[in-house]
Amino acid sequence: MKPDKIILGVLGGVAVGALLGVLFAPEKGDKTRRKIMNKSNDYADELKDKLDTLLGSITQKYEKIWSEGENLIGQGEAKLTEARKDFKI
Predict the structure, then answer these.
(1) Element (H, E) at 46
(2) Which of 2, 16, 22, 46 is most exposed, with the fewest beta carbons within 10 Å of its own?
(3) Prediction pTM value
(4) Which of 5, 11, 8 has the alpha carbon at shortest distance from 42?
(5) DSSP-derived 3-state class of residue 56
(6) Residue 54 in contact with residue 4, Cβ under 8 Å?
(7) What's the alpha-carbon Rg for the chain, to the nearest Å?
(8) Tell me: the pLDDT tens digits for 3-17?
């Protein structure tokens, strides 16, 4: 499995566990709802950070591949030009 999927799975499991723990805690409904809202916001922020990191990683890899492709095209054009010059002689 990929580490990103494992991290997301663990975060989801932790979120569900925390939610169930808060729901079954012997407190008033207002406090319980407030705790659920706070935990939900915390997990949403963590998930957003993980997704931003993943998106940044994907973007970097895409840009690297694009740059390497442009370099290969440039090298191929240079070799083609050189081969044409050699052929004309």
Answers:
(1) helix 29-88
(2) 2
(3) 0.50
(4) 11
(5) helix
(6) yes
(7) 26
(8) 777 777 887 888 788
